[in-house]
Automatic annotation (TrEMBL):
InterPro entries: Acyl_CoA_acyltransferase, BioF2-like_GNAT_dom. This is GNAT family N-acetyltransferase. Residues 163-302 form the BioF2-like acetyltransferase domain. Pfam families: Acetyltransf_6.
Length: 344
């Protein structure tokens, strides 16, 4: 689809990047907060027949757009961010070149009008988002994403942590080192093995089935991101055994700690914490300015960083059938909550 726009901007709905792929990456990289989940290497790894790229141009210049998945649920179209779901992309929004936010918001609203009745289910959203402005729906906070500013060195970052955290990291690191286990960043030749170990470590723990089912997509994305030097993979182990694996994204002035897998063997107690501390300290030493632990307000994250972003969601229906579909979902959710409350 192509629009006759309400201003001098034009939007096009495409199923591939066309000539605008490099310009999209340039926009992502120059954003105030570059998002790895909007990089083409991430989006291409999760591409499917549902994928739609809404690209907004002024003349020949790409000024913004959105990467979306459009499918059908119960006979009605559903619009979600690209790759939304098990892999949990975070800090998402419409992409806009500074000064062109209004044109991008208008284009998204125009595209939705052309799409017709639908359900919007946009998760992993930044607060005060451009997409919220475009659709006239206020988002709601669903989770937090802990983050912190990094000083000029790993030593200084560690000195700013609590004394109990420092003792715990030192104790675990020393105990693991005494058995020959050390943390290291994995080079290109070792990534495949590290991801095998990551998968094996998660396979021993309950509740990881959905993530393991997406490992093919995740592996493809990580190998692509490594080509751009925007993925860091670290392991804690020796030549024979791996007891923890960390996956992180480094883009702009920020490291995003995405996933960690660790051994549950009591002999490896503290391996996950020791590895994450090593990764963040290495990022500080490399001049990275902030660390984002992404969505999830687990208590352990507060030991590493002191602040938190909000993660928002929009779930809204457009048109009579879209509103009815969302209402039915909300009624079902309230019923489940009441049932859980009665069961204790």
């Amino acid at each position: 689809m192509t629009s006759p726009p309400p201003n001098d901007a034009t939007w096009r709905e495409l199923t591939s990047w066309g000539v605008h792929g490099p310009d999209w990456d340039s926009l992502v990289g120059s954003a105030e907060r570059p998002i790895p989940f909007l990089r083409r290497w991430w989006l291409d790894a999760s591409a499917s027949p549902r994928r739609r790229y809404l690209l907004v141009t002024r003349g020949s210049q790409l000024v913004g757009g959105a990467a979306l998945d459009v499918d059908r649920v119960g006979g009605i179209r559903r619009v979600r961010f690209a790759g939304q779901g098990v892999l949990c992309p975070d800090h998402l929004d419409l992409l806009a070149r500074p000064g062109h936010e209004g044109a991008v918001a208008d284009a998204f609203a125009s595209w939705l009008q052309r799409l017709g009745p639908c359900v919007l289910d946009l998760d992993g959203l930044v607060p005060a988002s451009l997409v919220s402005r475009a659709v006239g729906v206020e988002s709601r906070r669903t989770e937090t994403a802990p983050y912190g500013v990094l000083p000029g060195s790993g030593q200084q970052w560690m000195a700013e942590r609590s004394s109990s955290f420092r003792r715990s990291v030192r104790r675990s690191t020393k105990a693991l080192a005494e058995t020959g286990l050390r943390a290291e960043r994995v080079g290109p030749d070792g990534v495949a093995r590290a991801l095998d170990d990551f998968e094996a470590l998660h396979a021993t723990r309950p509740g990881r089935q959905d993530l393991l089912a997406e490992m093919g997509t995740l592996r493809a994305a990580l190998h692509a991101g490594l080509q751009h030097d925007e993925v860091w993979v670290h392991r804690l182990g020796d030549d024979d055994v791996t007891v923890a694996v960390s996956i992180a994204f480094v883009l702009g002035d920020r490291i995003s700690l995405y996933q960690v897998a660790r051994s549950t063997d009591p002999d490896h107690d503290g391996a996950g914490t020791a590895l994450l501390a090593h990764v963040i300290a290495a990022a500080a030493d490399a001049g990275v300015g902030s660390a984002d632990l992404l969505r999830g307000g687990e208590d352990y994250k507060s030991s590493f960083v002191a602040s938190a972003h909000e993660v928002h969601r929009i779930r809204a229906g457009r048109g009579r059938s879209g509103r009815a579909a969302v209402a039915a979902v909300e009624v079902a959710a309230r019923s489940r909550r009441r049932l859980r409350a009665r069961l204790g």
